[in-house]
Amino acid sequence: MLLKTKRTCSVVLASLLAISIVGCSSADNTNNNTAVTNSDDPAWVEAKTTPFGAYPDTVTYSVGQMATKFTQLSGSPYEKDNATNNAWTRYFKDKLNVQNTTKFEANDGTDYNQKVSMAIVSGDIPDLMVVPDYATLQQLYENDLIADLTDAYKNTASDRIKEIYDSYGGRVIDNATFDGKIMAIPTTEISHGPGILWLRKDWMDKLGLEDPKSMQDVEHIIAQFVEKDPGGNGAGKTIGLVVDNENVAGVSGGQYSLNNIFSLYGAYPKQWIDNGSGQAVYGSVQPEMKPAITKIADMYKKGLIDRQLAVRTGDDRKALLTSGKSGSFLDNWWGSWTVADSIKLNPDAKWVSYVAPQSEDGSVTMFTGNPSSSYLVVRKGFANPELAAKIVSLQYDYQRYQEKDPATLKTFADYSSLNVAGSPISINIDYYDAFYRNVDIMKEALATGDTSKLTMNNDISAYNSYKKYLEDEKNGVKMDSNAWAGYESSITTASLVKESNIKEVSPVFFGSTRSMPLKWPTLTKMELEMYLKIITGDQTPDAFDQFVASWNKTGGEVITKEVNEAITSK
């Protein structure tokens, strides 16, 4: 649902900008910095060329701000905090001597995106602003409304921030680079990792089944679950693999998606991939798709896939798992949270994760997600464009990894416990492999009790939760389902992925083209119907060939050409 909403907003916003941005003026807006920059003053030089150097005089900057529910601070020592005076703004003021003002404020999602659009169309954008997609960034660049941040990134992004971006193999910074110039500070989208097969291990033990590796192993286990009913549901009432009927495959990190099965055949649905000759092609219409979907249709016919998948809702799917009607689904490393409630209903239920099904060489191939979905830009004419890189470095490097002051850490921990954000800059920057990068450090802390290497407040909170879970398990105490889910995902499954043979395919395009707003909804509907009709047996796998022909005629061929033109022009 979230992905759909974000895409719809992006298309609408891009369309609005294409029509209206011609009315924008690239003339310098009134510079509302209250500080006067002295380029010869050593203190100013240091501030403008180092990540953490404070400005000699207070620099004021306006922002487009995502609303924070400060009302949740009621009754706490921070109950008077607001958008311009809170834990984060005080931290920025103390460390950098900067102060935000609010140009506009809106809730995350559609409301915020509309405010961004209105600001751009009016030509009156904040000094710093997060834009929601690549299309908006491109429009801002082409209309000369944003500052070149090449020197700002080079001089004032910290070494760790650069290291984080480097962990994406250059893909993130490249997305924000136009004509050799870095025009934004991109957000990062950490790797979702490969698809993970989750199985009821207590059922497997009851039936004497071994851990799966190959597709044949997976099919055998699910068949045994369905036929022998280890959960005691009654003959014919145990459901096979639970599958999402809206995203059968093709979403990075997709819940109940069959990405792992498609990738066995070299198929990557819904992804723009390099065909090996430098050309982008749409994965859903490639020849490798046909044998993959034929296999899935065969599984459905044998009862190894939920026979009612076409009509299940999200709540239905989860209920099948938590109630014990099904013992198998594909998800990601956080899939333990999907079935945490089953532990409450049945303390004997035991879910275990597997990197499967695997290819003959023991590998699992995954496609990577969009490495950056939003961008922090600076208004052209703002006197301190380096401020964007400095704030990002302070927030996502210094505060996260280097801050040691107990009082400061407690304040941020209090905010976190109350689920309050508060930063004027609502993005995230983290390592590509963040979900398992620090797993060994956490495992060492749990083994020794030494938490000195844990860096963030949430690390300590997680440590305490995991420690209690392990103690409860050792002592035979009824486990807390949330503690189990956290440990199973962030420790057990993260370790499993880290030690597995994972191969990656990186899509080459995540944006939009001029024909997509009009044609893509129809093409998407055609694609979904193709999956469901072939899988459920309403059509034979040969219908895939007709789908490909219709897809191309209905706009797919034109869009493919536009995608390649966009890649070439970039």
From TrEMBL:
Signal peptide residues on this chain, from the entry's feature table: 1-27
Alphabetized SUPFAM superfamilies for the sequence: Periplasmic binding protein-like II
Coiled coil feature spans: none
Keyword Signal recorded: yes
Sorted UniProt keywords: Signal
InterPro entries in alphabetical order: Bact_solute-bd_prot1
Signal listed as a keyword: yes
Top-level taxonomic group: Bacteria
Record-annotated membrane-spanning stretches: none
Gene3D superfamilies reported for this sequence: Periplasmic binding protein-like II
Protein name: Carbohydrate ABC transporter substrate-binding protein, CUT1 family
